[in-house]
Design a protein that fits this description.
Shape: globular
Structural class: alpha/beta
Order of helices and strands: EEHEHEHHHEHEEEHEHEEHEHEEHHE
Oligomer: single chain
Radius of gyration: 23 Å
Distance between the termini: 36 Å
Strand content: 5-15%
Largest sheet: 9 strands, mixed
């Protein structure tokens, strides 16, 4: 996600399954870095009821794949970046991964990682008897500049081994591998799209991958985020991030560009053309706009950008007219993502953590022209943890308690020009306490900040600043255990000892 538009510290290499002539419309990225994710079955129903027929996963999550079984939804399956070295160095590891996460699903036809044989043959006949009808895109930003070259030497060997493993599994003609890359892998020598080329310091690495993809009939997948340009550059023209045509256009040899997406996308087109791959298909693997955590991350801008993109994607860019194959980032907010890139990282979803639409968005896939909320969501009891009215703001434990709560929960809605930026001091403290309390499933011990907190059944929500009540935890097939989240990380419930003030 452009510069810092990663999926936090948990970026992955993704296996994307798609079909050249198959399912149209918009896809969505489904991330699972949440303290309380919705049950996978609920998410799959949400996808289907909103007409989203393509989804990208960031790893081969068993619960998600099981829920997607026989859903008819095309799936991207992911290999995490931390497995690249293993896949690069061990053909057996690559074969085992393909067997477990691709072959098993393709052979059973339970998850649409590949097209059923009759559809595969029909598509081959319709397009070109000699043409490949489907492809896989693998990857998610392993060459980010912020990685300082960590994955430069392992990405291509891993890619090659996974492709070889697919061939050995007799899937080489139906399922291929590619690497979705961040837009920072290319640049322009002239600041115009026509000056596009692969970034000089990694040119040979990118060229090697692109040639391999091209030789195997696979697409180039790129993640483009105009929001990040606005986030990192205070002088960036705001209107240029959107699709309304209100920005002063940039003229490139007679071609006008009035939005950043087109200019960025076509810089890639020129880079591919300059290196001999002018006809290579392009997938936009991630594109979206966050709704909180920064002054430019808000509901108005997110709705304006995503709706604008939906309308714009039908016509394409000056260099590549026609429908754009793209995946919105993202489906649902993730409150456990790293905020190293910025507080906005936890707010990319078009749905809130509990599957409720954030704003009016017409994907062109529903009868109502708006998003359909998740159904049958189960919530915890309607109660909140807030600051006691009798507690003093000058209590020396206040700062320590708030810092502690926010370090283990989600306070990214607090701050300048954010959703909860208008709260007073007591409101900020209460928000932090409640976030920690809800994340710990409303355990009494999670609302025992020394002489500062209390549990209330009166909703402390102020205006658009929502004090949330958490959804019931999802444990999959496992027996619920205190302190274990669905993502599999041991997040032991920490609490204050009221006497020693020691954190256990």
């Amino acid at each position: 996600m452009g510069f810092i538009v990663s999926v936090g510290l948990h970026l992955v290499i993704a296996l994307l399954v798609s079909v050249v002539s198959s399912v149209g419309g918009i896809g969505a990225n489904w991330g699972t870095q949440a303290s309380h994710p919705l049950p996978p079955e609920t998410v799959v129903r949400l996808l289907r009821e909103n007409g989203i027929r393509k989804v990208k996963l960031f790893d081969a999550d068993y619960g998600a794949l099981k829920a997607l079984s026989k859903s008819g939804i095309e799936v991207m399956v992911g290999i995490p970046n931390d497995l690249l070295a293993t896949m690069a160095s061990s053909m057996k590891a690559a074969e085992k991964w393909v067997s477990k996460n691709v072959s098993a699903h393709v052979s059973s036809n339970s998850v649409n990682i590949s097209v059923p044989e009759e559809q595969f043959q029909a598509l081959c006949w319709y397009a070109d008897p000699e043409a490949e009808s489907e492809y896989i895109a693998v990857g998610n930003e392993p060459f980010l500049a912020t990685y300082n070259g960590t994955f430069l030497r392992t990405t291509f060997p891993a890619l090659r081994n996974i492709q070889s493993a697919l061939i050995k599994a007799n899937l080489g003609n139906r399922v291929k591998v590619t690497v979705p890359l961040n837009a920072d892998v290319y640049e322009s020598s002239s600041s115009l799209p026509s000056g596009g080329d692969f970034r000089a310091d990694i040119h040979d690495y990118v060229f090697q991958i692109v040639k391999f993809l091209n030789d195997n009939g696979a697409p180039f997948t790129v993640n483009i985020y105009p929001f990040i340009s606005l986030y990192i550059d205070s002088n960036f023209p705001v209107e240029y991030a959107f699709f309304d045509g209100n920005a002063s256009p940039i003229n490139d040899g007679g071609t006008n560009y009035d939005n950043m997406f087109d200019a960025n996308h076509d810089t890639l087109v020129w880079a591919l053309q300059r290196n001999g791959f002018g006809n290579m298909p392009i997938i936009v693997g991630e594109i979206g706009w966050p709704t909180d955590g920064d002054r430019n991350a808000n509901l108005e801008y997110a709705q304006r950008f995503n709706q604008g993109f939906m309308q714009h994607s039908a016509k394409g860019t000056p260099m590549r007219p026609g429908p754009i194959d793209a995946y919105l980032f993202s489906l649902i907010d993730e409150d456990a993502k790293s905020i190293d890139p910025g507080n906005f990282e936890r707010h990319w979803g078009v749905f809130t953590f509990d599957g409720q639409p954030k704003y009016l968005l017409n994907l062109g896939t529903t009868n109502t022209g708006s998003l359909v909320p998740a159904r049958n969501v189960q919530y915890l009891e309607k109660k909140w943890c807030v600051m006691k009215p009798s507690a003093g703001l000058d209590d020396p434990q206040v700062a320590l308690s708030v810092s502690y709560a926010c370090s283990l929960a989600d306070c990214t809605s607090l701050g300048y020009q954010t959703t909860c930026g208008g709260l007073d001091e007591r409101g900020n403290i209460s928000f932090a306490f409640n976030s920690y309390y809800q994340q710990n499933n409303q355990l009494n011990e999670a609302c025992k900040f020394p002489d500062l907190s209390m549990i209330t059944k009166t909703d402390p929500t102020v205006g658009s600043c929502r004090f949330r009540v958490m959804i019931e935890p999802y444990y999959g097939g496992a027996v619920p255990k205190l302190g274990w989240s669905w993502t599999g990380w041991a997040t032991f419930v920490l609490r204050f000892d009221l006497h020693s003030k020691k954190i256990e």
